[in-house]
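Worked example

This section walks through a single chain of length 371. The input is the sequence exactly as stored; nothing has been trimmed or padded.
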Amino acid sequence: MPRPIQATIDPQALRHNLTQFKAAAPDALVWAVVKANAYGHGIENIFDGLRAADGVALLDLSEAERVRQLGWRGPILLLEGVFETRDLEWCSRLNLWHVVHCEAQIDMLAVHKTHSGHRVFLKMNTGMNRLGFAPHAFRAAWTRLNALPQVDEISLMSHFSDADTDKGIVAAMALFQEHTQDLSGERSLCNSAAALRHAKGMNVRSDWVRPGIALYGSSPDHPTHTAVQWGLKPVMSLNSAIIGVQHLQAGDTVGYGSTFVADRPMRIGVVACGYADGYPRHASTGTPVCVDGVRTRTVGRVSMDMLTVDITDLPLADRGSEVTLWGLPQKTSSSKGGVSIDEVASAAGTVGYELMCALAPRVPVTVLETP
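Given that input, the structure is written out below as tokens.
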């Protein structure tokens, strides 16, 4: 019998989340961001759920090729652009659009031999200070690109550093507007947080929005808003089972380092899940879990293959009981229980992105059928 841990991917939930973005930015087209193998979900696993997207955005040529092989005929955008000149041949072959964020990428285009012009997204650095042209250099870059016969159409884009905080996007938007107001081209500005929090109130049009994390059911501004408050559904659920039960007396300890000390008689369930499966090692005592659809907590340290949960007040819980680490139960009625991946991430001092991407290869994955 296989170990009971299992991840479940629900493409229908992604399809639902996609509709939330179309409602948040009704006048914009939607890039479905599937970088990092669809945030750890598997591009092939979620593909049916993103068919209603207007485009697919990612990083790697190999991922772009996979999306084309799955039958996607719409736009694909390389979010970091090309890394060397020969990558442009793949852009032509696979009909890829690509970001231009530095002079070196313009140099590559200038020497590239092609029979059809490239669709490029010129990126401005409005405060993130990762990729993009400084605002004062943006117009010159646009002018240079516009003069190249290798370039067919130029769109304009940026990426907000503070869309998920109270600082917001006002300053970045003003900077972008100042340096692009008389330049032609579609605009792509909003990530998940910006689309949900600011898209309807923006004073500069955004022809494309780029939802990433929220497509997969994680809130982009947790804890200010929960995924439920944004109307999002979890696409990934991680479930396992209790494989052993321990009975403690007051003063007994649990796990490495004896960091948890029982203050009363307790029942502890041992769960087949640990940091080698992708569960965060630094999740502290009190991290929420569900056992048979009933919410409880972890106790003690997470180890490589196991973690422990408090089942003192769950008299029916025993060996074989389903444990939901995040997402929704699969055996218990989905109307009962469920744990937000954002809550688990918060308890571990990280974000939902990392937990999704950290799911270990040894965890079996089941994909729910879409209607």
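What to look for: The radius of gyration is 23 Å.
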